[in-house]
């Protein structure tokens, strides 16, 4: 079975349905993945790009974005190597004003039982992580 790494534009055209030809092709691809004809791979940077475009270009809300992307993380035809961490990051993103990358770092820290070392004080807002500034 062929494995395909999907790019952000495939997910965006599927979610936005703003280009009929691309929407149809993306829908067909996800149907093929569902039926086992192909295996799709979703990487964390691709998900981050989707979030960036949805927030900056389409001005979608954080909760709306998280709800739209969660199914891709646990879709039967999609391999997402960091699905649990990304799901946690999206949950944090939806419920705060903290950017996705910091939410991802926090989620990865919790999943790995690591502390976070950063100058960014936003990490204090996550009660479930151990945060420290460099040099402290």
From TrEMBL:
Positions annotated to bind Mg(2+): 7, 102
Coiled-coil zones: none
First-tier enzyme category under EC: hydrolase
Gene3D superfamilies in alphabetical order: 5'-nuclease (3.40.50.1010)
SMART domains in the cross-refs: PINc
One Pfam family, short name: PIN
Gene Ontology molecular function: hydrolase activity; magnesium ion binding; RNA nuclease activity; toxin activity
Keyword DNA-binding part of the UniProt annotation: no
EC number: 3.1.-.-
Name of the protein: Ribonuclease VapC
Organism: Ruficoccus amylovorans
């Amino acid at each position: 079975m062929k494995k395909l790494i999907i790019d952000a534009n495939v997910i965006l055209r599927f979610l936005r349905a703003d280009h009929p030809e691309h929407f149809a092709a993306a829908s067909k691809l996800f149907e093929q993945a569902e039926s086992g004809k192909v295996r799709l791979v979703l990487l964390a940077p691709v998900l981050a790009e989707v979030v960036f475009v949805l927030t900056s270009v389409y001005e979608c809300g954080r909760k709306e974005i998280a709800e739209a992307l969660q199914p891709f993380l646990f879709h039967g035809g999609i391999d997402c190597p960091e699905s649990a961490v990304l799901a946690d990051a999206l949950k944090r993103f939806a419920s705060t004003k903290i950017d996705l990358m910091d939410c991802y770092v926090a989620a990865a820290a919790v999943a790995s039982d690591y502390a976070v070392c950063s100058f960014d004080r936003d990490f204090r807002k996550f009660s479930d992580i151990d945060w420290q500034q460099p040099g402290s």
